[in-house]
Design a protein that fits this description.
The structure holds 2 protein chains of 2 kinds.
Chain A lengths: L3 E2 L10 H11 L11 H21 L6 E4 L2 H16 L5 E5 L4 H12 L3 E5 L9 H7 L4 E5 L13 H10 L3 E5 L11 H4 L3 E5 L10 E5 L25 H36 L5 E3 L10 E6 L4 H10 L2 E2 L5 H5 L5 H5 L4 H4 L2 E5 L6 H21 L18
Parallel strand pairs in A: 1-11, 3-4, 3-5, 5-6, 6-7
Antiparallel strand pairs in A: 2-8, 7-8, 9-10, 10-12
Chain B lengths: L10 E4 L7 H12 L5 E6 L4 H12 L2 E7 L4 E6 L4
Parallel strand pairs in B: 1-2
Antiparallel strand pairs in B: 2-4, 3-4
The chains are: A alpha/beta, B alpha+beta.
Chain lengths: ~400, ~80
């Protein structure tokens, strides 16, 4: 049976060249980067080389990159580290409702610790409005965190405009760029952000490696205390193979970025355009301003999980909402925040494409997906409708 | 402890929120970059530095000029005497 992997926002296969770069560090180059003899100095050099490559990908200085074990760790580090460092200046934080749980739950933790958090609403395409950011700012606001792009609906957020508003009030801005780094141009200077999170496996690097960009001169309280790794800001013996793999993947992403985007966009658009012909299937997120390989729908009258399983039986692998809300069988808070009715939000499905996908994969998906919808609708007790489809309004293709 | 005011440093290193032994490592690293006679300022909130930095200066033959306290952190001033 044909197998088509359309879940690249969940994770990506490791690039063969990244694996090759990692191999010596999984075998004979096992030294601890802190050791002062040759095993250590070679491992240290490998990390510093990787740091330069990651820095080049996001246009920062190498010293501004702190390696972490994941994008989620980078997000926790950013939110908690800045909130604690700035708490004497104010205890108010702004985050959007589009954020990943690593941001939302860090914000909830801070709320329990005495901070006040404002959750910014989004429009029906998932955009955070910079004017709403301006309105939410108080004299106590010390940090704003808005995702660069939602992996659930693919919308790319107006970070530059948000930064502009924040800087009028000297407020620090963090962006979760896990879904964007290595997939669209990400330039910390151009965006103007103070902190930015990324994860290697989102651009064909290994799992277990992420990074936080921290603008030079910005004070941050460490999340993990211990040794002097990462200049004392993130303790723990480094995952040298994963960091080396992240460096190689970053180098390749920088080199191939435009080609990768140019390859994915037409495949993405073909899925969107073709599915527009299927009744009561709504595109979620912004039609134009979205991740190059990202397609997300809400299919009315049926459940995302059911589609997921029937598609998987056909060898088509996709996702329903965010990974965590899918497992918890909860309506996605991201979709609800966009004003999508709870019933419709149950029928969400995300196809995320990667360089391994071919036009034939897309043909196969477009051939198999509509019959899956039909089969489930024929079984659905709601097939005659529950009458709120018109509420989806602007989400309609 | 020796307290000073209005010292004009040649180089400043901000390691606020970094714990032991970053104060000693940064001190060692930064002092190498200085010319003889130049002054290094280290900003840290690590209490151990109160004892460690003067002791380090004694041990390495550099001059501990003194420190200044702010609400959130300490500023240590070290004059490079070694070559």
């Amino acid at each position: 049976m044909k197998k088509c992997y359309f879940d690249h926002v969940a994770t990506n296969p490791l690039h063969p060249e990244a694996l090759e770069a990692m191999m010596p560090y999984l075998k004979e180059e096992f030294g601890n980067p802190l050791s002062i003899y040759e095993y250590g100095t070679r491992a240290k050099k490998a990390i510093e080389d990787a740091r330069e490559k990651v820095a080049a990908l996001v246009n920062s200085k190498p010293a501004e990159i702190i390696f972490t074990a994941s994008g989620a760790e980078a997000n926790n580090f950013a939110l908690r580290g800045i909130a604690l460092a700035k708490q004497n200046e104010g205890k108010h934080i702004l985050v959007s409702r589009m954020e990943h749980h690593s941001i939302l739950n860090s914000a909830r933790f801070l709320e329990k610790s005495g901070f006040v958090v404002t959750y910014l609403s989004v429009d029906n395409k998932g955009n955070v409005d910079p004017a709403a950011v301006r309105k939410a700012i108080t004299k106590d606001t010390v940090l704003i965190s808005v995702t660069h792009a939602s992996s659930e609906v693919g919308t790319i957020e107006p970070i530059k405009e948000i930064v502009k508003v924040a800087k009028e009030h000297n407020i620090i801005v963090h962006t979760d760029a896990v879904a964007t780094t290595g997939n669209i141009p990400v330039d910390v200077k151009d965006l103007g952000v103070d902190l930015l999170s990324m994860a290697a496996h989102q651009f064909y690097g290994p799992k277990g490696a992420g990074a936080l960009y921290v603008r030079q001169g910005l004070r941050i309280v460490p999340l993990i205390y211990g040794g002097i790794q990462e200049t004392g800001r993130r303790a723990g013996t480094e995952n040298v193979p994963a960091i080396v793999g992240m460096g190689k993947a970053a180098e390749l992403a920088k080199k191939e970025l435009q080609d990768r985007m140019a390859y994915l966009r037409p495949l993405r658009d073909r899925i969107i355009d073709t599915m527009a012909g299927v009744k009561n299937v709504f595109l979620t997120g912004d039609r134009e301003n979205r991740l190059p390989g990202h397609v997300s729908f809400c299919v009315e009258f049926i459940e995302g999980e059911a589609m997921l399983l029937l598609l998987a039986a056909k060898g088509i692998f996709s996702a329903s909402g965010s990974a965590c809300s899918s497992k918890a069988l909860k309506a996605s808070p991201v979709l609800l925040s966009m004003g999508i009715p709870a019933g419709l939000a149950q029928g969400s499905l995300v196809f995320s494409l990667g360089s391994g996908n071919t036009p034939e994969d897309v043909d196969y998906l477009l051939e198999e997906f509509p019959p899956v919808i039909k089969r489930l609708r024929d079984m659905s007790p709601f097939a005659q409708g529950w009458g709120d489809s018109d509420k989806a309004g602007e989400c309609k293709i | 402890m020796k307290f000073v005011e209005n010292v004009k440093p040649d180089v400043t290193t901000d390691i606020v929120y970094m714990m032991c032994p970053m104060h000693l490592l940064k001190l060692q690293e930064q002092i190498k970059e200085l010319e003889q006679g130049q002054i290094l300022e280290i900003m840290t909130d690590y209490d151990g530095a109160l004892e460690d930095i003067p002791a380090w200066c004694d041990k390495t033959g550099n001059e501990f000029l003194g420190m200044e306290e702010t609400d959130d952190f300490y500023k240590f001033y070290i004059k490079k005497l070694t070559r």
